[in-house]
Amino acid sequence: MNNQSNHSGITVIFEAVSTSAVTDSTSTAVDGSYSVNLPPGVYEITFVAPSYQTVFFNQGQPTLLTGNDSLSTVTLLGTPVRYVSGTIHGTLFSDTTYIANGDLTVPSGKTLTIEGGTLVKFEAGYMLSVDGRLLAQGNVLDKVIFTLEAIGPGPQEWEGIVVGNGSEGNELTYCILERAQYPLVVNRKFNMGTPATQQLILSNSIVRHCDIGVQINSNQTVTLTENEFYDFNYGGIAYGGGEVQAWQRSFVTASTTAL
User: What is the pTM of this model?
Assistant: First the structure.
């Protein structure tokens, strides 16, 4: 932990990705060291401590552990925590961790911009509704992360991001969307009566640990490019109408077939 001499109490979560792996967790000692006995396999590794920025090892990508592995050192930064709920617009900055303790709404005519490296956590059951415009613009090293507040092994979920029928020009680039029931929904209800427009671009992002990765319920254009979908219960992409551009360049894997 940054600027601390006692590095105990960090929870290190190893979440199984491959069938050979087994989900487990451990805690760090005073010097920051930790150990855990795990079978070889592919894992997502997360470091969590109260009042510190959550760290997703390997930029959130799954890591192969073969036995007797030593992971590189990570540093957890102490950051201000801001609780948010209700109407939201303007800019969310990477030097603050945001926790949604109620539903969030970007109103019509307003834009919510989220800087690369920003962590946005949702308490279970809450959602982000976009009636205006959402720009979540990460990069290779600093992704925008949407996740559950009480991260750890278990079935809890936040509800997801819902892009409304009148919303256009939304872009999510280099994002991680995880641990939501439906991480990204384009229109909650099927609506085939509006002209086709470019409603959403999702690119270079990871969508995982969910029921359905992206649910599209409209005839508006959605562009999905260079994304990765995995660990979903029903489908990586569920399609109810309209036009999906370049979705074939998004990598969809799971035990079930994408709809």
Answer: 0.77
